[in-house]
């Protein structure tokens, strides 16, 4: 579990991610949860005093607030109050770029808003009349609002189902192609997008802030022994992700479940690297990608120990020894400087071609297309002319997948 100081720093990072000006941070122990306000009267007075001293307009609570608690705190403090779920939803709403991402954010927002509609909000209690299709006579405003939210959520789910079907068709097409898919996963701000840009030459948004990437991005990449692979950048994981977002953003993680290789990117220089690793592995286990102890179920996993350039020399030497002895493959890299990236690509290529076997193939000497394909996609160990006839005999190391592709040429 993260220390209170680490949680406070993460909450500060979330606030900075949507350009909030953080003027003060308080760590308040809660010995007894107050149903009405979460905090005790003395703690509320302390928060109010700090707000007045800094002229703060917004209070962010790094935890879950009920609708009643949020309303009562706003009345007591005279300021807008938002909880961790609301803050993360704001970030996701600002960052989602694709149609799917925006739909998922809206679905999560509506789910969150539905829980905020409580009968203690008297302006939603007024009676309203209406025709049958608008709600029967006597329907309260809160019931009408809830019905409107349910209807909109149902429409969004139908649209998302269509998007997922389209994504499923794309995945199936890639399987038939079939190019191996390499998925980048990791805690938010571990450096996935910077590594993605380093390995692909792309210009995906990569900033030193939480949730810089929300929508899955894919680019072609070349690995040793593999002419073409697909590298996929995914949304960052975080502790206590709101339940609305776990469900709404599950589709963005479907690329991980279909991946042939997973690169688990860790901020190895950060103080919470081990805790963040456990958080990521817990989510991967829920997705059925790894066992609870972190061992892979289907696709192999490489731990990418990023931000190596920030390590003190003695710590780097210590971690290099640990990487060699680790039960799962681990590679130290700096996505910023490029250090270790060639080694990472070599390890990835080796794992993806681990099931390759040698095949003896005879081709007409004039079949330039197949010759070029074998040299591009396999490892040609021997290439010699047949003693009789216009043909050549090749010994080529191919994976079962590439052999199937070759046979379809």
Structure description:
It is a single chain. The chain has 409 residues and is α/β, with parallel strands linked by helices. It has four domains: 4-91, 3-Layer(aba) Sandwich (Rossmann fold); 98-158, no CATH class; 179-352, Rossmann fold (3-Layer(aba) Sandwich); 357-407, no CATH class. It contains 14 helices and 13 strands. Strands 6-7-5-8-9-10 form a six-stranded mixed β-sheet, sandwiched between helices. A three-stranded antiparallel β-sheet has the order 11-13-12. The longest helix is centred in the middle third of the chain and has 36 residues, at 141-176.
Low-confidence stretches: 119-138
CATH architecture grouping of the largest domain: 3-Layer(aba) Sandwich
Beginning-to-end CA distance, first to last residue: 54 Å
Radius of gyration: 27 Å
Structural class: alpha/beta
Instruction: Tell me the series of helices and strands, N- to C-terminal.
Output: HHEHEHHEEHEHEEHHEHEHEHEHEEH
Which fold name corresponds to the CATH topology of the largest domain?
Rossmann fold
Q: CATH H-level name of the largest domain... which superfamily?
A: P-loop containing nucleotide triphosphate hydrolases
Count of runs of 4 or more consecutive helical residues? 14
Helix content: 40-55%
Mean pLDDT: 81
Give the percentage of residues in beta strands: 15-25%
